[in-house]
Amino acid sequence: MITETQARQDYLECFIEFERLAAGRELPWLRHLRREAFARFCEVDFPTTHDEDWRFTPVSAIANTTFRLMQDEQPAVSPQQLMPWRMEGAGCQLVFLNGHFAPELSLLNQPMDGVKVASLANELDRNSNSVEKHLGRYLDQHRDSFSALNTAFMEDGAYVHIRRGVIVEEPICLLFVSTLDDASPIMSHPRNLILMDEDSQATFVEEYVSLGSGTAFCNAATELAAADNTVLSHYRIEREQAGTFNISTLRIQQARSANVASHSVLLGGALVRNNVHPVLAGEGGECLINGLFLGGDHQHIDNYMLVEHASPHCGSRQFYNGILDGHAHGVFHGRIIVHKDAQKTDAKQTNRNLLLSDDAQIDTKPQLEIHADDVKCTHGATIGQIDEEALFYLRSRGISEVSARNLLLRAFAGECIARMKDGPVRKHVESLVNQHVLHLAHALAAGSTNGSEDERAEDAAPRL
Amino acid sequence: MSPLLEIRDLHVSVDHHEILKGIDLKVNAGEVHSIMGPNGSGKSTLAQVLARRDTYEVTSGEVLFNGKDLLAMKPEEAAWEGVFMAFQYPVEIPGISNVYFLRSALNAMRKARGLDEMSAMDFLPMYREKLNLLEMDDKLMNRSVNEGFSGGEKKRNEILQMAVLEPSLAILDETDSGLDIDALRIVAKGVNAMRSAERAMVVVTHYQRLLTYIVPDYVHVLMDGRIVRSGGPELALELEETGYGSIEASTSAA
């Protein structure tokens, strides 16, 4: 099935070695799934900017680098190194080092009845029925070469199963740590499978971070199957360092009356592609797709939303706010597909952007494909700068330039935070975003003619 | 006693077009001065320069405030020093609540003056009291700054901010424009409650109407970038009867 002429030599060698050692290598269904995906990847190769879905995002930096897969050995990481990434109020935190579950670094609380949180590799070794039934069923590896690549190399990540009617109050946190290495860059393909049975409720956090300096390639994919009447929030937080490439795909399958909120908060990484792809497959589903991306320097942050309405009476809301400084390049691609039978669809999309420098760039592109005739679909995008009038207004009331810029940026970012449910994750996100925004405000004020350095400590007053 | 505000031969341009052509004005603490003039005479430019808006170019002259060089100050520094301008067109700021904004402003001022920050517990009763003075609904405080406010609400919100920030020099830039008589009375009540021996006010207006509610000590007529006449409150009444045209005629004849 795979020939050397088709395959990229480096990935082929890697794949052969991977197959020999991978968890679940004895399982015929899994072997088949991986091989098919690898064949597909070889066939389509990495996308180019000629591909409409990748028009604004060249990935040659990924394609031209040889990455190695860390299978058996892992660099030593101490729990102390993870301290900055622990989240207050987390129910548990599973840590994955270069894609592999690291139990000694993870925080596992008392198991709860009806909730299973485990490593996918363990589940593959156990060959549980639900894994075979769901894994690879939702992700579109045929269309998307990164999904194909992830599926070819899938082995570990989180496996979560929440039983019928179970309400999980505390967030289930997954921390993905990439170790950076310039001499011999590492790639990882974390794969998460989250299954929620009827009437269950939970919150998930995927947080991506990196250690060291250099480069790494993290190509993550999550399949999330939400059964009838489930309620869930999913957060994806990107905080990797400036040398990393991160491609991440969230594929959500929503059954009848499932209520899903996807929140993306993208702060780090050199090249980030954030794919969110919900399919509203049952009647009465609701989906909120909320995102905030803050880019500076030469960061490239691409948000590719694909919302599929496949059933009647479903609602989707997309809200993405971007703040770009320096030479950062942001992309928002909002695609909504309304299938023929999805009557009474109510879909809305809004993308708002602030450009803080002359060299920052945003490409925003709505794309509606409507095959039903009784639907409501709206979309809108804005691109602007910090409002100078508002800035002067605040300053004329005694608020320093740094604080005024900080307040205005915070207000803009706050629109996205306001859509998150109150709780520990929102708090966590808010503090990350506030730090980031304050840093931006200082940089802006220092860059402007009136900038001053002596007001550093003056973060705005506490919340009322 | 040296004046609170002293403007000496102030020339100001926008895009190389001279708007103010030599303004001289002294304002002492405790006084209310009104600056009147037709559209385009430079009234708002003068107000904005005093509030330190940087879109105007001061080509010559000087402005002393409390004996300090006001023109060297940033907008926030002028505010810390005690300058407040009620905007002709208050800005809407989505995402920042009135109460958060105003407490941030007050605490920024207090900090700059070496005072402790005011806690929410101390701030809120004071804020409510001023809201009542201006007959504003309590609900407005948690709404975003000026967002969705009517014209009258916006102007009252300006006076509310002034009442909380307690400046030593308040510049009202056409605060009366576009107000109905009820809103005008409320605004005037708020302003009059602020009159004191330590505080000076410069009331910039196009219409004499406001001055029946806020009676000034001095009236100056600004035309084509110059103060062409100064006098007492009776000058405003004269203008009401004769209009700016007569002054224009008399000054060009002189």
Summarize the structure.
The complex is a heterodimer of chains A (464) and B (254). Chain A has 464 residues and is an alpha/beta fold.
Unreliable spans of chain B are: none
Oligomer: heterodimer
Shape, principal axes of CA atoms of chain B: globular
Ends distance of chain A: 64 Å
Largest interface: A-B, 30 and 41 residues
Task: Provide structural commentary.
- The complex is a heterodimer of chains A (464) and B (254).
- With 464 residues, chain A is α/β, with parallel strands linked by helices.
- Chain A folds into two domains: 9-282, no CATH class; 387-464, no CATH class.
- In chain A, 22% of the residues lie in helices and 36% in strands.
- In chain A, strands 1, 4, 5, 7, 8, 10, 12, 14, 16, 18 and 20 form an eleven-stranded mixed sheet that branches. Chain A has a ten-stranded mixed sheet with strand order 3-2-6-9-11-13-15-17-19-21, covered by helices on one side.
- In chain A, a hairpin with a 2-residue loop joins strand 2 (92-97) and strand 3 (100-101).
- In chain A, helix 2 packs antiparallel against helix 6 (145-152) and helix 7 packs across helix 8 (401-417).
- The longest helix of chain A is centred in the last third of the chain and has 24 residues, at 424-447.
- Chain A is globular and about 70 Å long.
- Chain A starts with 8 loop residues before the first helix and ends in a 17-residue tail after the last helix.
- Mean pLDDT of chain A is 93; it is low at 1-6 and 449-464.
- With 254 residues, chain B is α/β, with parallel strands linked by helices.
- Chain B has a single domain (5-253), classed as 3-Layer(aba) Sandwich (Rossmann fold).
- Chain B has seven helices and twelve strands.
- Chain B has a six-stranded mixed sheet with strand order 6-9-10-3-11-12, with helices on both faces.
- In chain B, strand 1 (5-14) and strand 2 (17-27) form a beta hairpin.
- The radius of gyration of chain B is 18 Å and the shape is globular.
- The model of chain B has no long low-confidence stretch (mean pLDDT 93).
